[in-house]
Design goal:
The complex is a heterotrimer of chains A (about 270), B (about 350) and C (about 70). Chain B has about 350 residues and is α+β, with helices and mostly antiparallel strands. Helices cover about 50% and strands about 15% of the residues of chain B. Chain C has one domain. The chains are: A alpha+beta (about 270), B alpha+beta (about 350), C mainly alpha (about 70).
Chain lengths: ~270, ~350, ~70
């Protein structure tokens, strides 16, 4: 058998024929395999929801501003398309709640609670809920109307909840991020809640969402941070805050009510 | 050797290599984008970029890690090794895009410094399902970065060869961190069995290839060592035991031998000085000559002869170096016989 | 934990900043003293090794100083 000593040297013009004959099918195979691999990888991914974040588009909405328990703009009739909820949960720019911005605005304008205002922001919506980011921060206030201020409705308990689910931040979940839940989103959710965006509880098996509050009706973001990313047991009393449901969790018994099972969030996909 | 450094010493093979490489990268990224928009049209651009770059980078890393063992198993894979550094740097750049998007997406515009947030946002190091996978990715990225920034020949020359090699062998640490980053990260959300199988397939392919190549190399080494033993060689020392221009004295099969290491070579001569039987093994190579510590008598290490006009001669011995170990054939050549020194190979 | 991370990030930041300052000096002046093959090298090459210089500046500084001492 005549065996030539084919030696590959990279700086030569061409590679020896045996190397070329050998590598061509190898590379060809790779070129065929890669798109198949990509396809199957994408195929098996969980579907994303159809929530939306209108990044780059500012929308002005007129409505009544409420602050308790969390900043919310109750849009007037006709301000938003019928498909969107009029109870617009307000959040700040980035991973922050709206309280800071509204506080700054109200330092100049006086209290806006219960007043008719026109705010500008970026809409976020999905699963029947609407959120708005006050993208322009203090410049989000377009107009204050002269109408008399309305009273903030009290939260009246109308039920109880007990079940498993995940604690999320509504800004990411309802449109800014996909996915806005689960392990890969955990750090972001922690950052958002740490920045003051209200915590929302999403039960594992229903389409309801609950803004989480403590017995004093305040956000309990701080206490919830260690529970983000887990499938948790939650129970509390339920009220309505316009179109949003609110769950009052007894924060003194949080460690008993909210138990970390170490199970992964995100359901069965 | 006085050629100035160039950014890249381009030639036809390298250009072709890079063309194919970047076409491959474009193929993976392009397919990913197309399939995502077809199958999951409600995806956001940021999520697409994060996933596409992650997938591309890890595929590239697997290809990179396969090249070494593949070349050991079949020399026809060597063209893939030739420009592997471009493959590595390209992979790092894609990984960097992934990391940058992740840090901005998940950690920026919040109440904490984004990089600090990578470490602080999720401190659950005690539970596997909640493990902060992003810190694993961060450290892997640092390793890949240090490798990428030191891939030019300048660094081969200016970091010591040992340091450079150790740094670039840490790709295996980066690989381990990345396997865990994926397993404890995205696979905790994307739970389809397909992904676990895919990850295991990649890992087993890399491990399997390394084990097979290692086995083949070990068998070859064993065969070489057995051949040496049959030819009468004895393993007597480690290369690193002997200081530069110094020696180690060994007593093998009744022979008293001094083994000298000098200028990237190893030679062996009789340990006994011809003058007054001084211990040559405690001597030093000075001006290219073995110098006896007692009275300064000198001998060329290559043939055991004293420099003219001196006439003393030492017996010389055959030396072989196999993987940093020095083997001696204690059967002496007649005094003054030239013997090819063994050359020290680095890696 | 926050303090520790802050401290580490600050130290890393200082290290890299020193690296950048060193790199500017080194790529202009020192590189040719440390490695002959860098004489007549292009700015493309020097830019290419800039990130590595920022990362590995203590090694290069040591070589540069060693080179100076040998010369004197």
């Amino acid at each position: 058998m005549d065996k030539q000593d084919h030696f590959y040297i990279g700086w030569q013009e061409t590679m020896p024929a045996p190397h070329r004959r050998f590598l061509r099918p190898f590379l060809f195979g790779l070129v065929l395999l890669l798109p198949i691999l990509v396809f199957t990888t994408v195929w098996f991914q969980k579907d994303f929801n159809d929530h939306r974040f209108e990044l780059g588009t500012l929308t002005e909405v007129t409505g009544t501003y409420y602050e308790s328990p969390v900043p919310l703009l109750l849009a007037d009739e006709g301000e938003l398309p019928n498909t969107l909820s009029k109870s617009i949960l307000l959040v700040g720019f980035g991973k922050f709640g709206a309280e800071g911005i509204m506080k700054d605005i109200q330092e100049t304008e006086g209290s806006l609670v219960g007043k008719k205002v026109r705010l500008s922001g970026t809409l976020i919506y999905g699963a029947g809920h609407t959120v708005m980011e006050l993208t322009q921060k203090e410049a989000s206030l377009v107009q204050v109307y002269e109408d008399a201020a309305l009273k903030t409705p009290a939260l009246a308990t109308n039920g109880a909840y007990q079940g498993k689910g995940e604690i999320l931040d509504p800004k990411c979940y309802f449109g800014v991020m996909k996915p806005g839940e689960g392990k890969t989103h955990k750090s972001c959710a922690i950052r958002c809640l740490s920045g003051g965006i209200p915590a929302v509880f999403k039960p594992d098996n229903t389409g309801d969402y609950y803004i989480l509050l403590d017995a004093q009706g305040k956000k309990l973001n701080e206490q919830l941070l260690p529970y983000i990313g887990y499938l948790v047991d939650m129970n509390g009393s339920v009220s309505n805050y316009f179109d949003w449901k609110v769950m009052v969790v007894d924060s003194r018994a949080l460690s008993l009510n909210v138990s970390r099972k170490g199970e992964r969030c995100g359901g069965d996909g | 050797m006085a050629v100035s450094y160039k950014p890249v010493l381009w030639n036809r093979q390298k250009k072709k290599y890079d063309q194919i490489l970047w076409m491959g990268i474009a193929l993976i990224l392009g397919c990913f984008a197309i399939f995502e928009f077809l199958l999951h049209p409600t995806i956001t651009i940021e999520t697409l970029i994060i996933r596409a770059t992650a997938f591309t980078a890890i595929i590239l890393l697997h290809i990179i890690l396969m090249i070494g063992p593949l070349c050991r198993l079949d020399k026809r894979f060597l063209p893939l090794l030739y420009n592997r550094r471009h493959l590595g740097v390209s992979m790092f750049l894609i990984a960097l895009v992934h990391a940058a998007f992740c840090i901005i997406q998940f950690h920026a515009l919040g109440d904490t410094n984004p990089i600090a947030s990578v470490f602080l946002s999720n401190p659950n190091y005690q539970e596997i399902s909640q493990y902060p996978f992003q810190t694993l990715g961060f450290f892997a990225l640092i390793i890949l970065m240090l490798m990428a920034v030191s891939s030019h020949d300048f660094w081969l020359n200016n970091l010591s060869p040992k340091m450079w090699k150790q740094l670039h062998m840490s790709v295996y640490i980066a690989y381990a961190l990345l396997i865990l980053h994926i397993a404890l990260g995205t696979l905790q959300y994307e739970k389809d069995l397909f992904y676990t199988i895919l990850l295991w397939s990649g890992f087993l392919t890399i491990s399997g290839l390394h084990l097979v190549a290692g086995w083949k190399t070990r068998s070859q080494l064993r065969a070489e060592q057995n051949a040496l033993k049959q030819e009468g060689y004895f393993e007597v020392a480690l290369l690193e035991e002997i200081s530069e221009k110094r020696a180690k004295a060994v007593f093998v099969d009744g022979q008293n031998i001094a083994i000298f290491k000098y200028d990237g070579k190893v030679s062996a001569v009789s340990n006994i000085c011809k003058h007054q039987m001084g211990p040559l093994g405690e001597g030093k190579i000075v001006d290219g000559c073995i110098t006896c510590p007692w009275h300064g008598y000198q001998y060329y290490p290559g043939n055991g002869q004293s420099p003219p006009p001196f006439k003393e001669k030492l017996a010389t011995y055959r030396v072989k170096i196999i993987k940093d170990k020095i083997w001696i054939n204690p059967s002496p050549f007649p005094e003054g016989t030239a013997v090819e020194p063994a050359i020290i190979n680095h890696g | 934990m926050e303090t520790l991370v802050s401290i580490i990030l600050t130290i890393a930041g200082i290290y890299l900043l020193l690296g950048l300052l060193f790199a500017i000096l080194f790529l202009f002046k020192g590189i040719t003293k440390v490695d002959e093959a860098a004489i007549d090298s292009s700015w493309g090459f020097r830019l290419l090794i800039l990130p590595g210089t920022i990362c590995f500046w203590p090694v290069l500084l040591r070589k540069w100083i060693k080179g100076q001492n040998k010369a004197t």
